[in-house]
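Worked example

This section walks through a single chain of length 104. The input is the sequence exactly as stored; nothing has been trimmed or padded.
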Amino acid sequence: MCLGVPGRVVQVEGQVATVDFWGVRREVRLDVVDEPVGPGDYVLNHVGYAIRRIPDSEIAETLALYEILLREAEAEGGADAMSADVRGEIEAASRPAAERLRGG
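Given that input, the structure is written out below as tokens.
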């Protein structure tokens, strides 16, 4: 299963956005996002690429769901496959864009 991680767009320069993931800022590519985004928008990130702009009406519910997922996984010792995927997405977003493009 593939899972995206929501984050808030802080800045956009061309096809690269700086996105805040729970206090961690990372560069995310905008090449495949479904619609234009700007600062303040929320996107769903998958391995360093924004794949969807989260509609304003869905932001609070989406963030709450991820908070619950991560909190419950930590309470269970972090063994949950979905939370591991979320953490993997956050880690992938932390790698430099050039490394992600090489598949590293």
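What to look for: The chain has one domain: 5-97.
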